[in-house]
Structure formats: structure tokens, C-alpha cells
Amino acid sequence: MSFVSSFKRAYQVIAIFLHYGLDELLPKKLTPWYFRLWRRSLFWLRNRHKHRPGGERLKLAMQELGPVYIKFGQMLSTRRDLLSDDWAYELAMLQDRVPPFDSKLAREAIETELKAPIESLFDDFDDTPLASASISQVHTAILKSNGKKVVLKVLRPNVEQQILADLQLMRQTSQLLETILGPGNRLRPAEVVDDYRTTILGELNLKLEALNTVRLRNNFIDSDALYVPYVYEELCYPRLMVMERIDGVPVSDIAALKAQGTNLKLLAEKGVQLFFTQVFRDNFFHADMHPGNIFVSRQHPDNPSYIGLDCGIMGTLSDTDTRYLAENFLAFFNRDYHRIAQLYVESGWVSPDTDMQAFEQAVKVVCEPMFNKPLNEISFGHVLLELFRTARSFHIIVQPQLVLLEKTLLYIEGLGRQLYPQLDLWQTAKPFLEEWMSHQVGPKAMFSKAKKHMPYWTDKLPELPELIYDNLKLGRNLLGSQQQMLDKYLRHQQRSHTSNYLLITSAVLLICGTILFNQDVTLWLARACIAAGVVFWLVGWRSRPKIRKF
Ligand SMILES: Nc1ncnc2c1ncn2[C@@H]1O[C@H](COP(=O)(O)OP(=O)(O)OP(=O)(O)O)[C@@H](O)[C@H]1O
């Protein structure tokens, strides 16, 4: 992007920002005198939406600024630790549906990736897109080789440049804000923008998305809870993805789900189970669960299954994090706050020099009121959110992967309760977590871990005697050389002590000699002292050890 177009974009962003009066919503700290002076000099850009509440103004501004800001707003809506609930609610309503781009451009982009005309591989390519989102556009067609219905998802032209330019502007602004706010501020704008950058850049590579989709599909290939469309890997490129076309009811269309007689209670429970299975069994979870990406199959409404799309953003946790997370949930439902605080330290999420008593107390203050609600109103997502919020006030930086998980969980719960308001999350998740934990600790766990590592050991076992022999030999040589090094070191120390002793004696003798020299009576004694001092100095200097490395 040239300087002129970057400047134009920056002006456009500022103009929209001021037209929605967002500057009036900034805290005093962020509006120093020079900012207010600058604002007054742009008097012609008035706030035209004075009558609307702040959250709505921010939402409308994001909508007008385009896809990057829309997605940013959606992401912000999940950061309830940073935003008040009404603002988060407004931002969550941002819709990611944008006008389609010219199908000629879509054709060109597809053919560039395929390096072949569309007609050579597909029949009935529909120029009218099935859907048009911020980053990509989806067209339907029939695959010539097998006659199956497919969709072609293609990136918008120049979307990378636009996103990178907008990201750069966001980054500069966030850095400026960070400087004004000073260290230790709660909003951490630069961190929020960096989180977003990672997320959105991940979505720009459809080849990566294709690989994620294949992995998720394989994880649930025999499942009656989740169906993931088949991906034609050989037809996937960084800017194009070809996959099976699915036919389902959008999960947000509750009326249509009811009309086809879907068992909503079962569907809601399956949603929660799916989340726990992805996190705890597979350690690979879909982290972009908005309604446009989840459908419900039209088959078997009495035993419904989900259909998952758009695996651009997937999350994984380390083994230790997964285990501590499960223990955290169990400890929470057993009201064991001490254990929760302990888990945060054991897992390394908080530093060991944290004031544990104060932290435990803070955890209790957060968790206890949740038990005043009926179980079917308790939200795991909120528990995690509040725990992370507490941890943050103890200056703990929560890892992005855990934030991603917390957001997904909040979404899944929201979805579950929308489908079936009486959903009891704990009853649904507890058996799963307990079963999982039993596989992680105790003799059963030891046995299954040993079983898991058996092929590795079978492979490595024949090398073992040779490795033992080599290591013993290495150990013996090492011991020998260590002994030699120690001897050298001791000798060095000894020489150094002797030399220091001689040099100090020489200094004493020389000082005494000089003093006696001035008193005429003991002239011979003075000479003797100085002579002895010189001899001691010479010997001491010569016996200095040489500088060497051990
Ligand atoms: N395999 C498919 N079969 C049928 N429809 C599909 C398929 N894949 C995508 N779609 C349709 O296209 C829409 C956009 O797809 P997708 O969510 O993958 O795009 P996107 O650009 O990643 O959008 P966003 O990131 O905003 O969710 C979906 O909501 C769905 O309606």
C-alpha cells in the first residue's frame, strides 16, 4: 500500500471515529490537551449520533469500517474482562455478511490457483455466490470426476494487502495508546491487537484451513454428534479450498429446528460433550464457533448431529494445561478453592511468589456467589472468565490459547442454553471429566500410558544395550576428566594462595624498609627489609599461576 493510500485510509478511519463521537467515550487519561486541541481543529467532523448509546456507536463505526474491523469487534465482544456487558452485547451483534465481489474476479482467482479452466474440473459452476463473507466467497459447483456437489471457497481479491494495511494502522494506534496509558494498564491495547493479528492471519491461508478440516473430520469420523465435510485436498491451495457441499439448518434458526422435530435437549447436550471431547480427548478444538459456521443435519432429528464448517481458527493446549484445566473444573464443583489456587501455581499459570492466601481468597470471592444459582444457571465459561480476570489482577498474563478456549466455552454454553434453557452443564460434563481424569492419574492411567508408548519402546529396545555400554564408557571417561580438572583446579588455587602470600609479605617488608630508612639509626635494618621485600616480590610474582580455563 502506498503512502497516499495509507494516509487516505487513516483519514477515513479517523473521520468515521469522530462522526460516531467515539472520541467522547475515551477516558480523560486518553485525551490530553494536545488531543483536545487536535479534535477542535477538526470541528467539521461532528458527532452525528449523539442520541445513541456508546456500545451501539462503536458497533456502527466498526460496521462502516469494513471486514477487518467487524471481525475485530466480534473478537472484542468476547473479551468481557475488558468490556462492560452492554458493550460486549452490542459488538456480538456485528454481522459478517458483506456484499459479494464480482464473480469474474472469483473465476480468475480460482483458475489462477487451479492453473486450469474451471470447466475442465467442474460442472454447473454458479456465478451467484452461495455466501459472501469478509475474507472469502463461496460458490457451488459439481465435481466432474465423481459428480458430487461441492463448494469452492475463494479468498477475496487483495484481501491480504487490505488486512495487513489495516492491521498496521491498528498496531500503530494501539502502541500510541499504550504509551499514553503507561505500563500496567488494564486494557493492554497492543496485546489485544496482537491476539487479533494472529487470529486473522491464520484465516488467510485456505490450505491450512483445509488441513485443519481434514484433521477434525478424522477425529469425528465415527461420531453421531459432529459431521465435518470432506475436503478435496488435491484441489486446495492457499487461496482456494474445495469441499463437499453440506445441507443443514443454521443452528441459530431455532424455529426451523423445532419445525423438523429436532430433539433440542439432546442437541444442546451433544454440543457440550463435543466441546469437552475436542479439548480433552483430541486436544484440537474449533475456536471460531459463530452461528454461520455451525449447522444441524436434516437427517435423524430425534438423534441430531452438528455440521461444522470453517476450521480456520483451531486451538490446542499443552498436556499439562489440559490436565490442570480439568482439575480446575472438578475443584470448582467441589468448592475446593484452595485446590484451585494451588493448581494455578502448579500449572505455572501464576508465579510461585504470588500471595497464595490473598489469591485463594480472591478465587473464593469469585466462585462462591456462583453457587447461589441453580446448577442449570452456572456457566463454566463465566467461571473461567472470572478466574482469569482474578488472575489478571494478580498480574498474571493468561496465555492466548486459554483465552481462546474460554471464549469457545462461553459460546458453546450460550448456544446450548439457547437451544435448551434448562441445560445442566455440570450433569452433562461431570461424567466426562471424571472419566477423563481417571485415565490421567492412577494405575489405569499408568498402564494406558505405558501401552501408548509401547511401540516406541519396542522400536528402541534393541538399541538399549549399546546405548547403556556407550553411556557407561562415556561416564567413566567423564569421571576421569572431571578428576583431572579438579586436580588442576586445586593446584591452581594452591599456587595462587602462595603467590598472594609472598606478594603481601613483600609489600609489608617494603613499607617497613621505607619507614626505617627515614630513621638514620637502623639503616642496615631498612636495607635488609627492602632487599628481602624485593626478593619476596620476585619469587611471589614468578609463582603466580597462569590464567587458564578449566
Ligand atoms: N461446505 C459447505 N457447504 C455449504 N455451505 C457452505 C460450505 N462452506 C461454507 N458454506 C457457506 O458459506 C458461508 C461462509 O463460509 P465460511 O464461514 O467458511 O467463510 P469465511 O469467509 O471463513 O467466513 P467467516 O470467517 O466470516 O465465518 C457459511 O456460513 C455457509 O453458509
TrEMBL record:
Provide one Gene Ontology biological process annotation.
ubiquinone biosynthetic process
Which HAMAP family does this UniProt record tie to the protein?
Answer: UbiB (MF_00414)
Q: Which NCBIfam families match?
A: PRK04750.1, UbiB
Name of the gene this protein is made from: ubiB
This protein's pathway reads: Cofactor biosynthesis; ubiquinone biosynthesis [regulation]
Source species of the chain? Shewanella mangrovi
Do you know which CDD domains this protein is assigned to? UbiB
Q: What is this protein called?
A: Probable protein kinase UbiB
Q: Which residues form the ABC1 atypical kinase-like domain?
A: 94-343
Location relative to the cell: Cell membrane
Record-listed E.C. numbers: 2.7.-.-
Q: How does it sit in the membrane?
A: Multi-pass membrane protein
Q: Which GO terms describe its molecular function?
A: ATP binding; protein kinase activity
Arranged from A to Z, the UniProt key words for this protein are:
ATP-binding, Cell inner membrane, Cell membrane, Kinase, Membrane, Nucleotide-binding, Transferase, Transmembrane, Transmembrane helix, Ubiquinone, Ubiquinone biosynthesis
Kindly give the InterPro entries that the UniProt entry links to this protein: ABC1_dom, Kinase-like_dom_sf, UbiB, UbiB_bact, UbiB_kinase
